[in-house]
Amino acid sequence: MRLVIIGAVAAGTSAAAKARRNDEDAQIVIYDKDNFISYSGCGMPYFIGGEVEDADELTPRDPAFFKSKYNVDVFILHEVLSINVHEKSMKIKNLSTGEEFEDTYDKLVIATGARAILPPIKGAENKNAFTLRNIGDMKKIKSYINEFLPKTAVIIGTGFIGLEVCENLKKLGINVTLVEKLRQVTPGLDPDMAIYVKDHLEKNGITVLTGVSATEINIDSVVLSDGNMIKADMVLISVGVRPNTAIATQAGIELGITKAIKVDEKMRTNIEDIYACGDCIEHFNIVTGSPTYRPLGSTANKTGRIAGDSVTGGDLAFRGILGTGIFQLFGMTIAQTGLSEREATELGYDIAVCHNIKPNKPEYMGGKEMVIKAVADKSNGRLVGVQIVGFEGVDKRIDVFVTAITFKAKVEDLFHLDLAYAPPFSTTKDPVMYTGMILDNAIHKGRPLMTASALKTLMESGEKYELIDARAAGQYEKAHVENAENIPHAKLRVSLKSLDKEVVAITYCNKGVTGNAAQNILINAGFKKVYNLSGGHKQYSKSMKI
């Protein structure tokens, strides 16, 4: 069998390695039009900032490595121009010599990745404007910084890469302004979690402009859609990527609704003996089963391995993704998996939402607070999505939640997990367990939650309600929700007669625990509709800044 792979970064090289492990006799050839192969794209921002000192650390494998270890022939600076599916042949151009030639295949794997989106901004081609998608882009940015010593930078877009570059430019002493056309940063998060990220950016000296877009890039400035002009010695355009599908569409390969290559669970396309993997393909969501496009290095490696297994007769099959992501920003860790509240609502789910604010370990051991927002399906109690913002232990918790969602865990299952506990690592009831308890109470135990946005809607509706601040008087006087009545938890039982059992009641405290205790008192006293404010006053005050 002659196996040809187009693309030699994460997916293509993974496919080649797995195919070779399965079949020692196969002829395996990879073509890539770039200089660099099998590189760590996620490490590029850290080279720009100097944390990774040697670019070679991000490109540890070259064609010679693959030849010696896997007996795979890798041809760099070779572009596949076209595919003839009837003859099982390809036209290829050697970009170093200009020579064009043909090659044939028995099986073909397309791993052409994705390219950076370039919005229609005047001046985007200027020498001070960059995208960051490959090692060549990275080196151009680093060279520009070393040569021109920029003092100001504008980053257009606030996804993972843009924010990671933001931090690294700041470490170099460059003043950074973020420009985001949406009303919030980190588009993958819900607004009530993204506000934590925005506040943290500003705390670390980053200027954040939302609800505005860039219209023109000059050599020393950026013009915005609102007419303002901001200084910019350099500009990074980081508004997302699109799948590279030109070679696939030319060959008649079907695209999915996301405009990425449509594949089945074995990475097969609609054309016999042609497979695809990596950032050029469409995935499907584990929760909904619907097509989705979420290009990440981890998924590219996984789908590449499956493709390599499939072309050699293996039984690996793709099981979908949750769109899990995590990144660090000035010491803060931001993570997400599954459906956001916005996505779940748009898809028609009847959901329960909680904001669980807990330290990652006891405060006497240096624990730091994290905010966990979880979304569950009320109809069956299944956990469908989680977002976390914190400083320590976020990676541990998000991976537990990923596992739970993947295996269709219900919120009540989280309490029963036998998680590792010792004071240096966790609290006795881990934040994961608390999240399950809160949602279980809300869905199954008659202790519903009300989000800050829902409370605001209630306030504006004209409907009568009782809003009870269950904190101590001093805390209430310092700051409280508008129209709230201060009835400390310790005095609530003796104050019941002054409250109307027939109207909606909402209780709250700082973060939710005492609010829940007050909610229990009212429910047990016969109040008809009692909610606890999700995340308490802390989450409410953050949400009101949106």
From TrEMBL:
Cofactor(s) demanded: FAD
InterPro entries listed in its UniProt record: FAD-bd_OxRdtase, FAD/NAD-bd_sf, FAD/NAD-binding_dom, FAD/NAD-linked_Rdtase_dimer_sf, Pyr_nucl-diS_OxRdtase_dimer, Rhodanese-like_dom, Rhodanese-like_dom_sf
Start and end residues of each Rhodanese domain: 461-545
One Pfam assignment: Rhodanese
Domain of life: Bacteria
Family statement drawn from the similarity comment of this UniProt entry: Belongs to the class-III pyridine nucleotide-disulfide oxidoreductase family.
Protein name: NADPH-dependent 2,4-dienoyl-CoA reductase, sulfur reductase
